[in-house]
């Protein structure tokens, strides 16, 4: 019976994401507001961002060579040099906007209804968890999406020092996870290595360093003073279950069906470990890893199975909970001997969201089972209807669409991951302590 529940649920989700979305025009007022906000945003990525990045980098360089540290500035200084983001739609900040073949997009209203830039490709009414975490870390602006051509323009390259977002909605740990055009985790890391890393070296050490980025090791100030002080954030895994393991279209040619769930989960963790080691080999030292959310409680899963009230589909949650437990073990065992200098903060999004679902009144939540926006029939209840109505008070809802949390929930996940002392929220340390290492 549980297998039937899995297959029915995921068949709906996979069919939803097979349907490509058409580009719609936003309302005139929204376009004007977004244009004005974009103008302000890009003004911030020019001289001010460059000055901030240069000051921070210069301070680090002087520290590494034994120079005096600069006097403290009155304004808040970033707690990390930068933040590089890899994963799926929960952390995608707009990369899928630039994938013509993607059916997983959020570049239209009501997405971004509460975001200064309007619809930006974030699967939320406002911020995603990366935006909220960046604010807590004192980053000078939004982490730009890799695929946006503006990210690599000459005037914006200095802003790369604060980080780049490589995440792609619909992608997973496995290369073949997802429908339509997505950027796999492997390709995201390749984009960091082949494009962004040379650009960063060019900003910090000049063109000669960029040309030699693959051969400089040891006491390299670029690694010691910059990359080792950046956060590498990974939020992925859910789609490997939704769009791969439990997707009949993926397994109809497999003799005897898919492998046992435990075997599949172990293979996922092994693949993810390999990807983390690749980032480690490129200079990453501080990792923030997000768990998979309680997928069995999302509106699309519950609606498809005609579940009412506060009930979640626990067999679906059991699958992701197994992955999350193995992911936490990976954090415990990843360091020696393969990644001896790595440090981790595991953020348990599952428990943070589940606590809000189980105790809504404590968190000021009114609606735990329905999406805030009207759902699109073309997406089978996963994404919002274009230009469709939304709930009046988004802070009272856990989910904005059929699968993704609201701005308020993303902010709570970020706050708990950043500053909580509970291992049920952040393990073995929180992001604030990780940034201080």
From TrEMBL:
GO CC field: extracellular region
Gene3D superfamilies referenced in this protein's UniProt entry, alphabetically: SGNH hydrolase
Predominant localisation class: secreted
Keywords: Hydrolase, Lipid degradation, Lipid metabolism, Secreted, Signal
GO biological process: lipid catabolic process
Localization, UniProt: Secreted
Name of a matching Pfam family: Lipase_GDSL
MF (Gene Ontology): hydrolase activity, acting on ester bonds
Signal peptide: 1-16
Keyword check for Coiled coil: no
InterPro entries membership: GDSL, GDSL_esterase/lipase, SGNH_hydro_sf, SGNH_plant_lipase-like
Entry similarity comment: Belongs to the 'GDSL' lipolytic enzyme family.
PANTHER family xref list: GDSL-LIKE LIPASE/ACYLHYDROLASE-RELATED, OS06G0560700 PROTEIN
Protein name: GDSL esterase/lipase
Protein source organism: Sorghum bicolor (Sorghum)
Phylogenetic placement of the source organism: Eukaryota, Viridiplantae, Streptophyta, Embryophyta, Tracheophyta
